[in-house]
Amino acid sequence: MNTMTESEWRLFLSFGTRTAKLASRRPDGRPHVAPIWFVLEANDLVFTTHSDSVKGKNLRHDPRVMLAVDDEQPPFAFVLVEGSATLSDLSPPELLPWTTRIAMRYMGTEQADAYGKRNAVEGEILVRVPLSKVTARKGIAD
Question: Is the full-model pTM beyond 0.70?
C-alpha cells in the first residue's frame, strides 16, 4: 500500500463520477452515512444538501464529518477527508452555479442545466469541507 501525493489524491477525488460517502452524527449520537455528489474548489470539497435532510440536520447539529471516496477496482485505492463543514444558506440564484457545476460532473453537459436548476431550490445549503486532513492510499492489493 502506497501513500498518494497531494496531486495524486486531488486527481483521484476529481476523476469521473466517484461519489463520496459522507459520515455525520445524528443529534442522539448515532452515525449516519450517505453518498454525495461533490466537486473540489481550491482547498475545499463542496456539495449541497437540503437543510431538512438527515445530512442537513446532522451538519447543523455537529459540523464534524468524515468522507470516503474509493476505487473499487484492483489494485484499489481510497481517499479519506476529515474536517468540520461550513454551511452557507444561499438563495437559489446563488446556488445555481454550484449545483450546475456538480451536476455537470455527474450527469454530463447535456443534463447539467436541468439538474442544476432542480437542485438550486429554497432550503438547499452549500457545504464546504476543508481539505486539511486527508489520508490517501493507492495500490492496496499490490
Answer: yes
Tell me how far the alpha carbon of residue 20 is from its chain's centroid.
5
pLDDT tens-place string over residues 97-116: 999 999 999 999 999 999 99
Which pLDDT does position 1 carry in this prediction? 73
Structural domain span for residue 87: 2-138
**Total domain count, the chain:** 1
Q: What is the CATH number of the domain that holds 78?
A: 2.30.110.10
- Angle CA(50)–CA(86)–CA(36) in degrees, nearest 5? 45
Q: Give pairs for 67-72: CB < 8 Å, separation 24+.
A: 67/20, 67/21, 67/22, 67/23, 67/36, 67/38, 67/129, 68/20, 68/21, 68/23, 69/12, 69/13, 69/18, 69/19, 69/20, 69/21, 70/18, 71/12, 71/18
